[in-house]
Amino acid sequence: MGKQHNRSVTKLLTPLHSLKQGNWFKLICGASFQHLPAVRSLTLAYTLAGADCIDVAADPAVIAAVQEALTVAQGLASEAEKRGFSFQGSLPLLMVSLNDGEDPHFRKAEFNSSHCPTDCPRPCERICPAQAIVFNDTKDINNQTNSFSGIIADKCYGCGRCVPVCPYGMIFTSSHVSTPGVIAPLVMSTGIDAIEIHTKVGRLADFQRLWASIAPWTDKLKVIAISCNDGEGLIDYLESIYNLISSSCSDLIWQTDGRSMSGDIGDGTTIATIKLGQKVLAANLPGYVQLAGGTNSYTVPKLKAMRLLRGWGDGEMGRWGEKITPHSALRTPHSIAGVAYGSYARVLLSPIFEQLENQEVSSIGFKASVSLEEKPELLWQAVELAHSLVDQIKSQSQ
Ligand code: SF4
Ligand code: SF4
C-alpha cells in the first residue's frame, strides 16, 4: 500500500459540517438491499474511507448489521489514521429509507423443529442475539415451560446469524411485507440518525400518512431527506411537502434522484441527476440539495467543472451565520451540498467482496460468512477503493 502518502488530507468534520461545506458523501446500500454481510462490509469500508452517511433499507436486521459495522469501524479508527485515511472515529449518520407508496419487506428466520436431529447441540439457540429460538424443554423468565419449539417470530429481527450455524441447513429466512405505517415505528425506535422518504410527484396523501406515522420520532432525527424523481409539477409538489414538514427541527436534504440505480452503467448517467439538481436548486427551497441516481466517478469532476459545488471557486464558504437555522435559507442557490452513490459504490468494491466470499468456508464443511475485518488485507484494499470515490468530493484540489 505504497500510495498512502498521496492521499489528500481532509479535516475531521462531522457529517453535518460536510453538508454545510458542500462535501457530503452518502453511501446508498439500497432501500431493498438486505444482503446483510454485504451491507456490513460496505458500511465498514466506506465509514473508514470517510463517508458522512450510510443509507439503508427499512429493515431492523439491516440496521443492526450497519450498527455492528460502525462499532467495528470505531475500533479501527487509529489504524485508519495510521494508514492515512481521514476517518478518526466521527461516525457517519445512519439513515433509513422509507417509501411512502410501496410496502417494505423485512425478513425473519424460520425452521421446523420437528425435523431437527435430537442429538443436535443447537448452536442456533446459543447464537441468537434476540433469544428468539426456543425449544420446548426450556423455561421462560417467568419459569413457565414453553410449549413451542422454533423461532418466535415477534422476537426475530432477521439478523441471519442462526442460518449458517445450523449444521443441517434447516434454517431459512423469508421476506415479510408490511405497510409503511407499520414498519416506520419499528425502525424509528432503533436509534437511527436520519430518515429518507422516497416519494413521487402526486403522492401527497401517501406522504402525509407516512409522515403522521413517524411524527413522534422526527424531533430526534438529525437529518430528514426527501428523495424524488423528476416529474411534471415537481417543484410545486416539493413545496407542498416542505409545508408539511417545515416544523421539524432536523436538517433537510432534497435528494434529486436523476436516473435511479444506474450509476454503474456509464459516465453519461450522471447528466440526468445534475440537471435535476439544477432544477431543484433554481427553486431555492429551504434545505440542502444532494444528488443521487446515476452518480459515479464522473459526477464530482462534472460538478466542479460546472462550478456547482459549494466552496468550489465561488467564494461561498463562510456565508453561514453563527446560528444556523435547520432549513436555513442562507444557503446560496446553485450549489450542491453533496452526492450519494449507490450501484457505482457497490460495484466498485465487488471484486474485493468476491474474494471475501470465496473464503466463506467453515471448518466443518458448510458455508459461514467471514467478516471483512477478519481479512485485513482485503479490508484495507476495500477502504482504499472506497476512499478513491469519497475523496473526489472531499478533496479540495482537482
Ligand atoms: S435471524 Fe436467527 S439469530 Fe437472528 S434474531 Fe432471528 S432467530 Fe435469532
Ligand atoms: S442448529 Fe439446526 S438442526 Fe440444530 S436445533 Fe438448530 S435448527 Fe435444529
Q: Name the overall outline.
A: globular
Largest beta sheet: strand ordering: 1-2-3-8-9-10-11-12
Helix content: 25-40%
Number of helices, counting only DSSP H or I runs of 4 residues or more: 13
As a percent range, the share of strand residues is 15-25%
Overall average residue pLDDT: 83
Poorly predicted runs: 1-12, 312-332, 362-367
Return Rg in Å.
22 Å
Largest pleated sheet: 8 strands, parallel, barrel
Heterogens: iron/sulfur cluster
Features:
single chain; 398 residues; alpha/beta; eight-stranded parallel beta barrel; two-stranded antiparallel ribbon; 13 helices; 35% helix; 16% strand; globular; disordered N terminus; binds iron/sulfur cluster
Please explain how this structure is put together:
The chain has helices at 15-21, 36-48, 60-75, 77-82, 123-127, 162-165, 180-188, 204-214, 234-245, 270-283, 299-305, 343-358, 376-394, and strands spanning 24-30, 53-57, 93-99, 105-110, 133-134, 150-151, 172-177, 194-199, 223-228, 251-257, 288-292, 338-341. The protein is an alpha/beta fold and 398 residues long. Helix 11 links the parallel strand 11 and strand 12 (338-341). Helix 12 (343-358) packs antiparallel against helix 13 (376-394). The radius of gyration is 22 Å and the shape is globular. The two termini are 22 Å apart. Bound molecules: iron/sulfur cluster (2 copies). Residues 109, 127-128, 130, 132-133, 151, 156-162 line the site of one iron/sulfur cluster.
